[in-house]
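sorry for the late reply, my laptop died twice this morning and i had to redo everyting from scratch. anyway the thing you sent over, i finally got around to it. pasting the sequence first so we're on the same page, its 241 residues, then the predicted structure underneath. double check i copied it right bc i was rushing
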Amino acid sequence: MENIFVFISIVLVASILQTSTGFGFSVISTPFLLMIFHPQEAIQINIILNFLISVLLFRKIRTDIDYVILKRFILGSLAGVPFGILLFISININAFKLGISILLLLFTLLLICRFKVKRTKFRDFIVGGISGLLSSSIGMAGPPLLLYFTGTDTEKEKIRATTLAYFIFIYFISLIVQIIFAGTEKIIWQSTLYAVLIVFFGLYIGQMIFSRLNQRVFRIFTYIILSCTGIYLFLESLSSM
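ok and here's the structure:
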């Protein structure tokens, strides 16, 4: 019963953040799902729910999508996915948690320091490749896109829309590749089914929040989400060693 309550809470909060920011689901859900699931289970649940949310929101966000950069992200990600699946197959739980925490804290530090980068075609492909690797290995495709978009001062509407559209592709591909090479479990699909209604509720709340966020609040919100999750996971992984 306690695990069910924790699972529902994780999915609800992560769904709200995903809808209001475009990237928050995997950042929140993956670390905390590790509290109640094995790594492969947590990653696949995260991927399936991320894909579902992105599909459900597509109609609302399609007019804000930057299709040029979306195409480059997709093409770049195809090069990263095969390397990511190799990591997925050989995951060590403590190293996995520690790696995610360091990655999140690094991204957060760069954002807080107002990391700036000029958008180029080549960099679009590179960011897509890194995102594809992280998607198929740890189910977290969002952080590289968030860092890149923030570094190029992209509007929050375009960040959310392009990221969610990209997620439809990358999480579908990552799930198929994981199932082929590592298989799947019944508990993954049962848990996902239980979470569907919670996801719908989270989408509704998140959409209301998004309409009230200005660019500055959106950026601060991003820092808080990434840093708190990274610090928690870092401390938790150290205590398990």
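The radius of gyration is 16 Å.
thats about all i looked at so far, will dig more tmrw
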